[in-house]
Amino acid sequence: MHGHTGGTNGYISDFKRYADDDAMLIALTDRGFVKTRWLREAVAKMLYEAR
Q1: Within 13 Å of residue 14, how many CA atoms lie on the same side as its CB?
Q2: Of 8, 7, 6, 47, residue with least CA distance to 24
Q3: What is the pLDDT of residues 18-35, one digit of tens each?
């Protein structure tokens, strides 16, 4: 997995690339300092279960 997170003044972004699964996840929010890890982990779990 390769990725990067970031944010500024009320915006958060999370980009993850799952090269082995030929998939990527981009989460964008305008909810301040909301956590996106739960979303990334849930999607990764679904990817691995679908294999």
Answers
A1: 15
A2: 47
A3: 888 788 888 888 877 777
Q: Has this prediction a pTM greater than 0.85?
A: no
| Other Cβ atoms within 10 Å of 2 Cβ, number | 9
User: Cα Rg for the chain, rounded, in angstroms?
Assistant: 12
Residue 27 near residue 40, CB atoms below 8 Å: yes
Query: What residues make up the domain containing 17?
Result: 2-50
Pure H helices in 7-51? 37-50
Say how many domains are in the chain.
Answer: 1
